[in-house]
Amino acid sequence: MLSSLKILVIISVIFLFVFFYIPLIEMFIYSLKSENPIENYVSILKNPLYIRIIGYSLLISFLTTIISLIISYPIAYYLAFIINEKFKSIILIAFIAPFWVNFLLRTYALYNVLYMIGIINNFIALLIGMVYDYYPYMLLSIYAALSKISKSILDASFLFGASPFQRFTKIILPLSMPGIIAGSIFVSLTTMTEFVVPSMLGGVEGYTVGYLIWDLFLKYRNWFKGSALSIIIISIALIISLFYSRKAKVVLI
Fold this sequence. Notes:
mainly alpha; 11 helices; globular
C-alpha cells in the first residue's frame, strides 16, 4: 500500500515538473535572451506605460477581492449559522450552479445582460464581470471556515453574556480569517492576470496586464519581453502569496 502511494506521489511530481516547471524554466530562459541578460526586465520596469498597466491590473484585482468579500461573507454566514440544514445544500448549489457552465459562455451571457441594461465596455462592466466570475471561490472558502466553528463555543459565549456584536468580532470573525485569507489569495491572484473578462466586457478599460502579455506573445511576437513581463507578474504573485501566508500563520497562532 505504501509503495503504491509512493508511486502515485512520484507520478504526480513528475507530471507537475514536466508540465509546469519546465515551461516556466523555458520562459525564464527566454526572458534573458538579449545582449544584456536583464535588458528585457529593465526596459519593462522603466516603461511608464507597462508600470501603469501593471498598477491598473493590481487595482482591478484588489477591488474584485474586496467586493467579492463584501458579497460573500453575509451569504456564507447565513448558510453556516442561520438557514435550516435541509435547505443549506440547495441554497449553496443555487449560488455555485452557474459555474458549472463553461467560463466563456457564462461571460458571454453576462455580456448580453449588461448590453441590454446599457452597462457594457466600461470599468463598471469589467468589475461586475470579474466579481461575477470569481466570488464563488471567496464564498466557498469563507463558508468552509465558518462551518468549522463549533456551535458550543457560540452557545458558551451567549451564556456568559456576550452580545451578538461581541460574538461576531471576538469569535466568528477571527476564526473565519483563514477562509478570508484563502479566498483572497485565490481571487486576487487569478484576477490579476485575467484576460477574457476584461477583453469581453471592459472595452478600452479592459487593457490589463493579461491583455498586454497576450499582445507581446501573439501580436508583436516579442517572446523575450513577454516572458520577462510574465516572470515579473509571477514574482508579484509570489510576494502577495507570501504576504497572505504570513498573515494566515499569525491568525492561526
